[in-house]
Write a structure and sequence with these properties.
The chain has helices at about 50-55, 125-135, 155-165, 175-185, 200-205, 220-230, 245, 260-265, 280-295, 310-315; strands spanning about 5-10, 25-30, 40-45, 70-75, 85-90, 95-100, 105, 145, 170-175, 190-195, 210-215, 230-240, 265-270, 300-305, 325-329. With about 325 residues, it is an alpha/beta fold. The strands form three sheets. Strands 3, 4, 5, 6, 7, 14 and 15 form a seven-stranded mixed beta sheet that branches. The radius of gyration is 20 Å and the shape is globular.
């Protein structure tokens, strides 16, 4: 099969915020599938906050990066991966790739549901929010919660799912007044503060004067410390990420009243969504009917063209997206 494949490589380890100079595009001949594999042409790419953390050592230099991606099988030598089928895999940051059956999951067709949803509310982003609320926090009807980085992919999904699960007061933090307005008007948050506007503890106390039962933590830092003070007895912290410190490796450690954890019987638990992939069907059974009815809308910022994938990633780190950042071919 003739043609050109393009990949994105990381060229150096960033110190602080990455730039376009830390990446380069590489062209090569279109790969040929070996027996038991299939060639996939990628259609949608996910760029995620955790990619920044992986740039510090997990990503191999001068090699194709990885990430969640949706593609179409264009040539196959594996009967379980039929030509024309749509698959989700992790060989992202490239236009084409060769996958084995254990590296790709055939997507379930849900009429009326956009394909991009498999990278947002039906993808790892939505699954992270679902696991955090249902399995880690075990959110109960009427409980109040606080979500940091609420305008991001996980934050918007958490807000929408919390509403469907019967949460009480839903409070969030975001990086601008415009994002706060979007979350209140469209996603279902009751109150959202701009975390630039003052000390996190004061802002959270004003937004949730009666305290919270659950904190979904995407950023760490001062907002994590503030949540410890705001949690009621038997409160839970769901640790998802530390995006606020990915570009500041020398940031001071989080300081909070450690006695609160014992005195209020708090629970702090983190998780990796890859350990909960068996819940994918459960997530789709729960969310798809709400997508079809319109009870859930997609929160996505979609950019056009593989050429822009690096800038889309950097833009996501700068907070330029609302909802999940996705690149479309």
């Amino acid at each position: 099969m003739n043609g050109i494949a393009r990949t994105v490589h990381q060229t150096a380890r960033p110190q602080g915020f990455p730039t376009a100079d830390h990446f380069r595009f590489v062209e090569s001949a279109l790969p040929e599938p070996a027996p038991g594999t299939a060639l996939v042409e990628n259609l949608y790419w996910s760029v995620d906050p955790y990619h920044r953390e992986m740039m510090d050592g997990d990503f191999e230099l001068d090699a194709p990066l990885e990430g969640r991606t949706i593609g179409r099988v264009v040539a196959s030598r594996e009967e379980s991966l039929e030509e024309g089928s749509l698959v989700l895999h992790r060989h992202g940051w490239r236009t084409h790739c060769v996958v084995r059956p254990d590296e790709a999951r055939r997507l379930t067709h849900h009429p009326g549901v956009p394909l991009s949803a498999h990278l947002s509310i039906l993808g790892g982003t939505g699954l992270t929010a679902y696991v955090g609320l249902r399995r880690i926090a075990r959110l109960q009807e009427g409980e109040d919660l606080f979500v940091s980085s609420a305008a991001g992919g996980v934050g918007t999904a958490t807000g929408r799912l919390a509403r469907l699960l019967g949460a009480g007061r839903v409070v969030g933090s975001a990086g601008s007044a415009a994002k706060a307005g979007y979350l209140i008007e469209h996603v279902g948050y009751d109150a959202v503060f701009d975390y630039h506007a003052g000390p996190a503890a004061d802002l959270l106390a004003a937004a949730a004067p009666d305290g919270i039962d659950v904190y979904v933590d995407n950023v760490g830092g001062d907002q994590l410390a503030a949540s410890i003070g705001a949690l009621r007895e038997f409160g839970r912290v769901v640790r998802i990420g530390t995006i606020g410190q990915y570009n500041a490796p020398d940031a001071p450690p989080v300081r909070f009243k450690h006695a609160d954890v014992v005195d209020k019987s708090l629970r702090i638990e983190g998780f990796l969504v890859r350990n909960y992939r068996d819940l994918q069907g459960e997530l789709e059974d729960f969310v798809v009917p709400h997508l079809r009815s319109g009870a859930i809308q997609l929160d996505e910022t979609v950019t056009e063209g593989f050429d822009g994938i690096v800038e889309s990633f950097l833009g996501m780190l700068r907070g330029e997206n609302v909802g999940k950042m996705i690149v479309r071919a």
